[in-house]
Amino acid sequence: MQFTVVGCWAPYPRIGEACSGYLVQEGDTALLLDCGHGVFSSLGRYIDYNFLTGVFISHFHPDHYVDLYALRHALRGAFMLKRRIEKLKVFMPDEPHREYAYFKQVPEFEVIKVENGLKCRLGSIDLEFFSTRHALPAYGLLAESKGKKVFYTGDTSLFPGLYQGKEGIDLLVAECTLFKGETSYAAQTGHMTTCDVALLAEHLKARRLLATHFWPEYQIEKLKGEIEEGYKGSLFMAQAGFKIEI
Ligand SMILES: [Zn+2]
Ligand SMILES: [Zn+2]
């Protein structure tokens, strides 16, 4: 699989960049993980949106889903011009219901409700969704192809159910929203600190760790230094255009 960072900021992007958006590709299968502010515009640097096979929306915070509106309009045009015939599979939670109900009736989308433990196959990639702990109902994803595994946390705090039974990860893509000193704010908002991210990577026996979901004002090198105190594997800090072969 190839993994590409389209955007990595939260909850708003740096100038000219994007919030959460990641591309997982294997052969002709292209899955977009989240579609936050700026992702639709940035996506064109890596793939024509008409070639997307699926989109996974981890939860309905705007920095993870709001550019689905742009994608929807673009696809409407593509359908009219017959550049695309197949509906786009969109995996999303069914809560809050207002957002789910809206996207469910979009004719260009085939909406699939995500549930804890749901497994399915998208082209050449096997998907397994799991619940996370966040301010809203939220999910993470385990994507597997040709024996390689990518684990995407979405937004979450750290809890044992997140990693138990999922050890042996080739690439862990983990939200790293806060510094290690911000544990109470992390618990309050449902996010991870650098220390949590390192612990999660150790529990999952992750060979490589890609930290992401950064507040634009934070110094990324400082976040990196804190993760390195607890995680000794290969560590990458997300930035737009970062690509890795898994
Ligand atoms: Zn977020
Ligand atoms: Zn969130």
TrEMBL record:
One of its GO terms (molecular function) is 3'-tRNA processing endoribonuclease activity. InterPro entries: Metallo-B-lactamas, RibonucZ/Hydroxyglut_hydro. The keyword Disulfide bond does not apply. Keywords: Endonuclease, Hydrolase, Nuclease. SUPFAM superfamilies: Metallo-hydrolase/oxidoreductase (SSF56281). It comes from the Bacteria. The keyword Nuclease applies. Signal peptide: none annotated. It holds the Pfam family Lactamase_B_2. Residues 18-213 form the Metallo-beta-lactamase domain. This is Ribonuclease BN, tRNA processing enzyme. It comes from Thermosyntropha lipolytica DSM 11003.
